[in-house]
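The aim of this short unit is practical: by the end, you should be able to scan a pair of folded records and say something sensible about each. We start with the first protein, listed as its amino acid sequence and then its structure tokens.
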Amino acid sequence: MKKQLFLVVVTVTVGFYLLFGGAAFAAKTKVTYWFPGEAGQEEVFAGSAKRFEAKNPDIEVVNTPLPPNSADINTRLNAAKLSNTYPDVFAAFLIYMGTRGSQGEFEPLDSYVAKWSGKNDLYDSALKLGVYKGQLLGLGYFPAPVLPVYRKDYFQEAGLDPNQPPKNWQELHEFAKKLVKRDSAGNVLRSGIDIPSTTAPDLIYMETLMRANGSKVFDEEKDEPAWTDKGAIEALDFIATLWKEKLSMPHSNFQWMEHPFAKGNSAQGWVMTTVLTTLFKNDPSWKQKIGFTPPMGPVRPYTFCGYRLFTIGKDSKVKDAAWKLIEFMMEPEEMWDRYTKLLIPPVRNSLKERFIQVDPAMNKALADAVTWGKGKAPLAWTSIGDKYLGQAYEEAINGKKTAEQALKDADRGARGELKRLGLMK
């Protein structure tokens, strides 16, 4: 009798566990999370996800690190759309607010942010850059400024003051001529300044100088190209002059770790903060060698500052849990962790003073870049514009066309394609 009673109790207990405990386990919410995986970022973002799971045991985060360039990411996203596996939380480039936001791929975050106490501490750029057609589609968490930099030791070697970076384009040009090194045949051994020989698929360098000279490049209000003005033409002509004077080694603008500056073969250039992270990690002596050039321009201080933004997939079935993950990633402690490990500037006002105090020279440069910089225009057709601008760039630096003619032809080509696609009247 006792044995039978024992079996009944065990059976009921196991059944109870399978019914309730098993159900609870099966009910655990899964959030798919696609985040940056380049330059050592995978470990940092995956670590944040683990801390989130520890605080939210009812949610499981399924991590997917992304490749470094937008072309490969676009391929992954297109495949995800076809297979109904679009991520619940996606760390999107700013350009995607237009190219993909216009296709209805992202859930508007306005209602979530309206109830979020953290919004009042956020930089304006983090809140406003993700707005497309009046809706907040992404929350900025990862400003990615491209910093103008120079080598202090090379300056000193060339007889230049290592603590006095160029203040304008004229000095930028003059310094580059003093800093360049060539062999007896005229081949560049060390660049005076990095000038990309090809911009595809990235126009950061070109846009930086155009915007610094007063051009809009892309008119977001009128939703049309705006690169035939005086500012844009003068900027491209300046770039072509630097290239024709053989002040730089050939390289692609997009492959940041392959830039001559990143390899120690250039005296002046522009670098992503993630490149600096890698350089300092691999060789701490770089920290003393690099100086920072303040954002400059004939018309306004400017440098490129991209952004990555947290988005929620429009078709996500777990939007509340997805927002909960985003909210956690935007906490001050998580921002500070990303800064200490990846040099990603925090985007909370309450962290700004602490941020600058840690490394006044570099972090002041980062703060200035975030303040003065601007990323890619969030338009539905930005990639089309980039295609024609890239052609204009290469035509101008290779002497096939004047800067003015190259940009006018690019404008004509872009407008024609946009009209054929029904994206412009």
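Turning to the second protein, read its sequence before its tokens, just as you did above.
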Amino acid sequence: MDANDLRVFETVARLGSMNRAAAALHTVQSNVTSRIKALEEDIGCVLFYRHSRGVSLTAAGQRLLPYAARAGLLLSEALSAARDEGEPRGLLTIGSLETTAALRLAPLLARYAGAYPEVDLVLRTGTTRELIDDVLEQRVDGAYVCGPAGHPALREETAFREELVILASPGVESLQTVLRSAGVRIVVLRSGCSYRQMLETLLARRGIPVQRFLEFGTLEAIFGCVAAGLGISLLPRALIGAVCATGRLSVHTLPPTDAMVETVFVRRRDRFASSALRAFLDCARGGQAATEAA
């Protein structure tokens, strides 16, 4: 069993077909078939059921798959580490909450891209839950999430501190008006959004049932629905300044214990930090220090 055999196995398992795997690996199907047969003989187990639609994993194949995927990632990381001579270059993929990307990251990304033109920088947005999974599965090099992450496999450091506020329609003069109702509707991003979870917790502590969830994929959609009186939402104050200036929404302050949250940057403890990632973190820390000093 060698690394190439495991790579072929993982590709066949992922695509569910010897033919599709051959196309993805830029080889012929007979080569893929022979490698899988050799791997099965080497291990002493059948790894795939063959059928008219392609292939599916046997129980032994399902047990092997996570190890094959990790082996591939480890080899790729080993090559990156060996080739990294200290000059930031190559691909760097950063994850971020949509709110953090909109509110905080544009100046940082501009500084970094200008300082390190040899780095291909990719930004992916998602919920805290999605982004932590992406970091753990090494789909991103690191991510900005709502902290604390509290995962033993992750290293985390505080990046930003935010004050959260409740948003309601313009006619709501007091938050108590909303909270005294028999049940409230909350307007949120999709499941896994940390602000959604915080709002649910805040209402539950006050014994207020959530009547209905309205889920939207963009912040502008949330602003529009809250402004129309369809529900309330919870977001960083700094994010909604321009919207509130137009009078579209009413903003309601929370007690400090409920309002203050940290955005943290997380990355795997056991993963090699490339020169590109280290330069990004230095750039982020420098920008944060300058902001706090100002």
